[in-house]
Amino acid sequence: MWPLYAAGFTTAFGAHGIAANLGGHSGDAVTSLLVLGGLLALYDGAEVVLKPLFGTLADRIGARPVLLGGLAAFAAASALYAFADSPGWLWAARLGQGAAASAFSPSASALVARLNPAARHGRAFGSYGFHKSIGYTLGPLLGGALVWAGGLRLLFAVLAVLGAAVAVWAVLAVPDVPPLPKVRQTVLDLARRLAEPAFLAPTAALAAATAALSVGVGFLPVSGRVVGLGTVVTGAAVSVLAGCAAVVQPRAGRAVDDGRLTVRTGLAAGLSLTAAGLACAMLPGLTGILLGAALIGAGTGLITPLGFAALAASTPAERLGQTMGAAELGRELGDAGGPLLVAAVASTATLTYGFGALAALTGALAVAAFLHRRSASPAPRPRNAR
User: Fold this and answer.
1) What is the pTM of this model?
2) Residues 6+ apart with CB under 8 A from 44
3) Whether the Cβ atoms of residue 142 and residue 154 lie closer than 8 Å to each other
4) CA neighbor of 127 nearest in space, from 17, 229, 3
């Protein structure tokens, strides 16, 4: 499992490490806000388009080769800019990184499900999410240090080495999991399966969690600057958010596996905590920022492992890659949609109302989760079950 956790760390560290430091790059590669926006959108756009396709490919040929190919491609794309002497290669490198992450991210999720019994899915996805959270936390910090020491090319070089190392580790340690025989599926069959509550409910919760996480990371520092807080304090608040998410995820997974928490209750509670955190972010000053960061982190930490465990429990094993790819697409849409919603409301009113709009939407999902009669996973097993 450790190479899969390392793959999760790699995609999170690479995405946030570069995204957080592109804007501060003073070289010729990033010359304007328009260029910065294009480079950020290029990576995310590749993931939105390609994750469902690579998830389906993982079901067809096996998740392990797609994982290995994605990691190798990520290392190659990172090395492309590390060794290039033209700023134009940065665009190709970011596109290649996004496409590669689209391959190994859903494949890693599918392997986490295939390599663990259903009774341990909560723990497995909790640990996987924990390591991704560590990557999200360390990416901006270590990435900033690397850019300060040697520019973007040094950061890309480190990512190339990291991707290659994890790929070699996966070759040596991840067992081959052959694809399972499956009944032929039409586009209508796929649409019908993805429209079922067992898929929509956890995916909507995952999208809301990602939206809140993205908004917290992006806009809580803005709130801090408005009231005169320095970058150290606002950076610490973002670290609180990521730290709470990292701490909660393994515990939430164990609680579900032990029968102390159902998926439906956990998702509803996570959405409620996230909505409360966004509401606290509306309060002025440091208290509102810290409360908002802690509650958003705890809420998203509850939602993430439970959402993926629910998807794994409700999906035939031979379709895990396809489901994980589609769910990752939902997360990417939340990652983009949350900041867009808050920014749109803030542009016509204030940032406070932007937080309120996303809090209301997340709260509505929490109410729907509480009222939903069908759980997104099988009934919990007794604590003493083997």
Assistant:
1) 0.73
2) 98, 332, 335, 336
3) no
4) 3
